[in-house]
Structure formats: structure tokens, C-alpha cells
Amino acid sequence: MAANGLLDRRLFLKRGLAFATAAPLVAAADEPWLTTPGAPFTNYGQPSPHEKGVVRWISANAAVPGNGISWTPLHELEGTITPTGLHFERHHNGVPQIDPARHALLVHGEVERALEFSMPALLRYPRESTIFALECGGNSNAGWQDKPIQAAAGYFHGLVSCSEWTGVPLRLVLAEAGVTSGAAWIVAEGADAFGMTVSLPLEKALDDCLLALYQNGERLRPEQGYPLRLVVPGWEGVLNVKWLRNLKVAREPVMARNETSKYTELMPDGRARQFTFVMDVKSLLTSPSHGMHLDAHGLYELSGLAWSGRGRITKVEVSADGGQTWADAELGHPVLPRAFARFRAPFDWQGQRAVLQSRATDETGAVQPARAALVAARGTQGYFHYHAIVSWALAADGTVTHTYVDALPAPAAQGQGFDAPWE
Amino acid sequence: MAANGLLDRRLFLKRGLAFATAAPLVAAADEPWLTTPGAPFTNYGQPSPHEKGVVRWISANAAVPGNGISWTPLHELEGTITPTGLHFERHHNGVPQIDPARHALLVHGEVERALEFSMPALLRYPRESTIFALECGGNSNAGWQDKPIQAAAGYFHGLVSCSEWTGVPLRLVLAEAGVTSGAAWIVAEGADAFGMTVSLPLEKALDDCLLALYQNGERLRPEQGYPLRLVVPGWEGVLNVKWLRNLKVAREPVMARNETSKYTELMPDGRARQFTFVMDVKSLLTSPSHGMHLDAHGLYELSGLAWSGRGRITKVEVSADGGQTWADAELGHPVLPRAFARFRAPFDWQGQRAVLQSRATDETGAVQPARAALVAARGTQGYFHYHAIVSWALAADGTVTHTYVDALPAPAAQGQGFDAPWE
Predict the structure, then answer these.
(1) Candidate from B13, B16, B172 with C-beta closest to A17
(2) Burial label, B380 (beta-carbon count in 10 A; 0-12, 13-18, 19+)
(3) What residues does B172 pair with on adjacent strands?
(4) Looking at chain A, which residue has its C-alpha nearest residue B78?
């Protein structure tokens, strides 16, 4: 039985919520929208002006404004699909404005015949769709810092977004070129002015990668790779090369900047990890989360996201006492492999201090680690693949902040609530 | 074995597609985007200027510009999720611009306690998400006309869109108000200047309806009901009241305009159908479809959408000879109840004339009817719930047009191809 306010889902619905107020005798009827014709039809809809604060937060290099990131505001979103306009970005030299009539994909190297695919030619090929969470390998890397970053969930973990991608299976294009024996890698290059280049094992390329033309039903947005993006389900975001122009089949990886000076991590024993492609099982509570405030005592729904590059999420547990006790959260439907799964659990807050956590398990049996365990295994020279349990400290005044409680000795239960260890 | 060019999916992948061209010796490197820093980061992304033609097509009343519809361009989209900016619209007096701080939901009538829910109060309740295809009861009604309308697929069938909706289960709010015995209906009213009003059986309200706050991850767009919409999965779009302000629990339906002068259909035997809530099993090919042109002989992928308000799609068949022979199409994953299912099938076009069709079956065993059968059953005084098989005529010159071939005598097979009956 989980402690410190966590409830069984059935109790949640039986307790009565009572957040409404007694109705007035007469409904208000004097608002202008009730009596005045509304705005005309639009060809392409946009969010309400009242939601103009729900945006990607940009962290770009002042000296090189096209080099940086923008974050998905996970703490303001719901469900499992990320709005395309809020999908995170990582650019190295800005967003190229490509004319699709002048763009083509070259496939060459260790192949029987080098081929060029115009966009109209690619649109003739069979297509597949897949919904998955695309995550930057550097997402959540503030977690490696000695002190817990005090930032909203989306500005700490929001380099991950979940979309439906549709495109041509990469294996079809490679079959047409005829991969020669001895080939083991694909080197992919983008058409931005940075010339983004990565190496990808041929085995993955022949499995489930797509030459994506559509995202969430429509053609790609420019900042997501228009007109063509390599998508590599479940693997590091950097491999999902935008504005794809060049695929070279090779015997060896190219050892580009993003697989040598970056994406290589020094371990505590002096060895380095490289080509750590798969994104690990992960979860976080988005509501409540850092920066939110519980205004009143009573029932709350804890809600968050879980995902794994290795497959389907099978379980998410939540804790209100910093991981001493756990309760199973409810998973929304459908739970798709490598996609966001939304989890929910009821929580009764009567002013007690709490440390709120979630812990995800995937279908391979992998379990999201506590932060102390992850740091012990990887050291603090890493930068990528941070996926430890996230802890939000709920104070008696209702404020929610980020904490590293799970790195500290287990606190003793005390009185009405939980004696939060950061005090 | 299906005739007239339909192929087995495995053959499709074995035949070799060969739409690429031999690669140039040197890749082009002189495009400006390869050498010049790109555009800066954006807080909220938009489509490429090269895709500016992919919009909702507006059919509004010239005298009352806020009364009309806009269509989802199904023929330009892929996958199963409709971009939120392209979700179809049906408005009666424009789009109200509602300040959420001044909006509330009143629940009253046959209840133990009348209640008012502010938006912050509603946001305290537990939430659920569901992905489903929301379809106007009048979608595809040009199909009732004597002659086949010559319009793109989206401007004929595009009053349907598929989204992930997230909100508070309506049953929770009704439980809190305490529905009294004898109540059997809910009367829902919107906060637009038309005062849109509909009646909904209480049984459905207590089943799976949501008070939706989010669509595809973000808060509702104004034209989709911001800040609150009633969503009624699988049932006529008109019931999904936008800008929801009023829920009256009642013993009888209110007999509003949209359930008496509209949404009531005269049948051939003189009786009328009323309260025909559930949307029937349906499908159409989106590629190719009316107005498209096959530029060259060779292999094509037929692709389209199937859905049913009654549950999951279990089978989609395609025909290239006007329904004389059928082949199973491949269904994309996942197939979710009441949501769009994407289907695909290979087609070898060597210049033969063809009538391309799709026929969907759902998990209740319901099969999409031929047009002649639907018209025989319902007559031509109907206006709603047209869901017959859609036929696209492919001519020898590669043009694709809409035809009613299935209402005509079955033609004889002839020569290389199929002798299309409209000639």
C-alpha cells in the first residue's frame, strides 16, 4: 500500500471531488460572444490568443543564433501526441528554407547502383506510418549537475516529442540501390549549412527506419526537416537527420563530430561509451511538476509521460514519499511501442510535504533507475542518456520544486506527512 | 484473385520500383541553403510556404459568413492523425472568441444539485484521452445527388477528421450533480451566438463522452470549441457541441432545430429516421482520388482511410474493376476503435481503364454498402449518413474522376483492361 496521499483509482472516483460551486439561478447571458456573430472561417487554424504563453522555449547561442535548441512545454500539454508546432528543435546553423523542386536524395557508396531520388520519385514509393517519441540524446542532461536545476518540466525534459511519422521505408530504397556485401553502416547527411552528418548501423536502416515526408498527417514543417527527414524509431534524436540529402552506404562509421567530440561519454572506470543509440526507459510527472502550485487541499490527479526506445511501457509506478512506497498508475490507451504513454494516479493532498516520483518499466523488463544508481554507474562526466527517476518536492505551502531526494538517505516517516529530506 | 492490376503486397516489394534515376557523379552543392545560415528558431512552428495550398476549403453562406463549413483536405494528407489546423469546421454564427476566465459550465435540470464549473475547477478533475474520427452527419452528402459530384476527395468527404481528445469524463460531472431517476437525456448548449443546442441520450453521456479541454496535446483551438467541447465518440459531429456552457439533464429530448427540421430523414416508405446517432462504417481511397493524374505506367500504392463509429475496422478490401473482384488491403498499425485506419494496396497500371473502390468492414460485422444498395434502402430524400462505397474512374490517359459505376449494370471485362461503364 503506497503512503503519503496516494489513493486507489477506484477510491478517487468514489470520494466525490466537489470542485464545482452551486449554480447561479440564472446563467450569465451578457458576454459579447453570446450575442454577436463570431469570427469567420480560417484556412489553417491557430491556437487561442489566451494560450499564447504555451510555446517552445528557445535556448540559442547568442553569437550563432541558428545553433541551439527549443523545448516542448511538456508541463502544459496533455494526452500523448505533441502538437507539431511545439515539437522540440535542435539546429546547428538554422532552418534551411528548401525548395522541394530543387531537393533530391542521393544513395551511393557500397551499392550496386548509385541512385538519385527526386521528391516526386520518392512520393511514388509505398509508405508506412509509425507513432513514436523522438528524443534528443542530450535530453534531461541537467540531471547530471550536482544540484537540481530549478526549471519547469518541459525546460528540463522537453527535448522529446511524440508524433505520427509517415514515409518510405528506408529498406526499399536500399534494396533498389543494391547494398553490397561487407557494407555495415549508413552515413546520413542533411542539407543545412552545418552539413549535419551521422553514422547508423545498416541493420537498423534495414529494420524500421523511414524516409519521412509527413508528420502528424501533413508534410513536414521546415524545422522538422522539410522536405525529407530520416527517422530512426527509438534511437537518439541526432540520428534522425533533417533535410536529408545524402545516404552513403559504408563499411565503417564516418566518425563525424557528433559521434566523436560529442555523443561519446567518459565512464567512471576511464572507458568511454560510444554509439549508445537506443533511448532508455524513462518517465516523469508533468502535473504537478516544478513551478506549479497546489492552491487548495483535496484530491489531485497526478499525470505524466513514460516512454522507452526499446518498446512498449508495461508499468508505471508512482510514489509520494520519495520512493519508499509505490503504487501502480493507470496507463491510458493505446500504449504503443516507443511512443508516449500517459499515466495517471490519484493523490490526496492535505498539506503534507511529499516527494512525488514516477518509475517506468518497459517490455524488455528495463526499469527506470534512481538517480543515485545512474550516477554510480555512469559517473558525472556523462552528458547524454540521462533517464533517472525525477523527483518533485511538494512543500506544505503547495509549491513544487525539483529535488534530488533519491540521492539522499531515506528519511523517516513523521506525523501527518512525510518529512521531506531537503529541509 | 483480384483483377485489373491489383497485386499482392509481397509482389509489390519484389517487383522493383525503379522510380529513381542514376545518380550524378557529383551532388549539387550550390543551393543557397547549403552555404547560408538558415532561419532562426520559432516559438510555434508553421507549415512550409511551399505547402501553402494545403488548406481547409471554405464553403460559407455569402449572406451569413459565419454559417457554413470548411473541409479537411483528406486527399493531401497521410497517416491517421489530422493536423489540428486542418480539422474540419461547421459553424452556424462564426467562431466565438471566448475569454476562459469568463466561461463556465452549468449542469442543472433533473439533478440533485445544480452546479457551475469554472475552467480552473474543471481542470482539477481526472482526465481521459481518446483518439477517434469526428464526422459530421452530413459528410459526403453529395453522394445522394443523381450525378456524381466532380470534386476532390476532401471537398466531398472531408467533414471528418481524426484527433486525440483529452478531457474530463462527463460521467464524473454528472455523478457530482446527482442525476435523478426518470432522467433519460442531456441537452447540451454552446456559447456561440447561434446557441447551438442538441439532445443526447443519458446512456451515452454516462458511457464514454468527454468534456474536452485538449486536442492533439494542446488546449482546444477556438474553432474547435475553446475552452470546452462536448465530445461524443463515434456519434454524429453535431452532438460534439463546441464552446459548451450548459448541460441540462432532462426526461425528454428538447426537439431543437438540429433534431427536427434537420437530422430527420424521409425514407422511401414515408416514415422518417430521427436520432440516427451512430456514424456507420465507411472508407475511401485518398490516393489516387478525383482530380489526381497518373503520369506514368508502373506500380502505384493505393492508399485510403477507413473508420466506423461502431468500433474497430477489421478489414478493408480494394477493387480495380468496379467491385467485380476484391483484394484485401493492408491495414496500418495501430487500428484503434472509431479512429481512422490507413489502408494500402499495390496496383500495377499499364494504361488500362479502371474503377477503383474500397470497402470497409468493422468489428460488429457491418460492411460498407454499394451505392445502389444504400439508395434503395434510404431513397434520395436523405441528406445525412451517406457512407456508400466510393468509386474513382481511372481513364486511359491517367485522369481520375468520380463515378457512380456501382449503380450501373456490371460491365464485361474486355481486352487489356476493364471497359469502364461511363464511356
Answers:
(1) B172
(2) exposed
(3) none
(4) A217
State whether residue A287 is helix, strand or coil.
strand
**Full pLDDT tens readout for chain B, 423 residues:** 678 898 876 666 666 677 888 877 555 668 999 999 999 999 999 999 999 999 999 999 988 889 999 999 999 999 999 999 999 999 999 999 999 999 999 999 999 999 999 999 999 999 999 999 999 999 999 999 999 999 999 999 999 999 999 999 999 999 999 999 999 999 999 999 999 999 999 999 999 999 999 999 999 999 999 999 999 999 999 999 999 999 999 999 988 888 888 888 888 888 888 899 999 999 999 999 999 999 999 999 999 999 999 999 999 999 999 999 999 999 999 999 999 999 999 999 999 999 999 999 999 999 999 999 999 999 887 789 999 999 999 999 999 999 998 533 344 444 344 443 333
Q: Which residue in the block uniquely carries the three cell numbers 516512454?
A: A307
| Grid coordinates of A357 | 516520483
Q: How many CB atoms lie within 10 A of CB A315?
A: 17
A400: nearest Cα among A362, A361, A354: A354
Query: A119: left (phi > 0), else alpha (psi -120 to 50), else beta?
Result: alpha
Specify the CATH superfamily of domain A100-137+162-269.
Oxidoreductase, molybdopterin-binding domain (3.90.420.10)
Is A164 in contact with B37 (Cβ distance < 8 A)? no
Q: Give the pLDDT mean for A274-284.
A: 95
B127:A18 CB<8 A: no
Q: Do B45 and A77 touch (CB under 8 A)?
A: no
- Is B192 in CB contact (< 8 Å) with chain A? yes
Three-class SS of residue A402?
Answer: strand
State the smallest CA–CA distance between residue B397 and chain A in angstroms. Answer: 18
Grouping H, G, I as helix, E, B as strand and the rest as coil, residue B222 is: helix
Q: Tell me whether the omega of the peptide bond preceding residue A120 falls within 30 degrees of 0, making it cis.
A: no
3-state DSSP assignment of residue B79: coil
Determine contact: B106 vs chain A, CB below 8 A. Answer: yes
CATH topology of domain B100-274: Sulfite Oxidase; Chain A, domain 2 (3.90.420)
Asked if the C-beta of A11 comes within 8 angstroms of chain B's C-beta atoms, the answer is: no
CA-wise closest residue to A337 among A294, A291, A394, A279: A279
Tally Cβ neighbours within 10 Å of residue B101. 11
> Helix, strand or coil for residue A69?
strand
Q: Which residues contact A15 (CB under 8 A, 6 or more apart)?
A: A7, A299, A348
A-chain residues within 8 Å CB-CB of B56? 41-45
Q: Are B307 and B338 in contact (CB under 8 A)?
A: yes
Strands (E), B232-364: 244-250, 264-266, 272-274, 282-287, 298-307, 313-319, 327-328, 330-331, 341-349, 354-362
A216 and chain B in contact, CB less than 8 A: yes
pTM: 0.94
CA–CA dist B1, B8 (Å, integer): 9
Q: Chain centroid to CA B36: how far?
A: 42
- How large is the ipTM? 0.94
In this structure, whether the domain defined by B282-418 belongs to CATH 3.40.50.300 is answered with no
Q: How many A/B residue pairs have CB atoms within 8 Å? A: 382
> What is the Cα–Cα distance from A309 to A203, expressed in whole angstroms?
16
User: Mean pLDDT over residues A288-292, rounded?
Assistant: 98
The domain segmentation of chain B, as residue ranges, is 100-274, 282-418
Distance to chain B for A269, nearest Cα, Å: 39
Neighbouring residues of A285: CB distance < 8 A, sequence distance ≥ 6: A153, A302, A303, A304, A318, A356, A357, A358, A390, A392
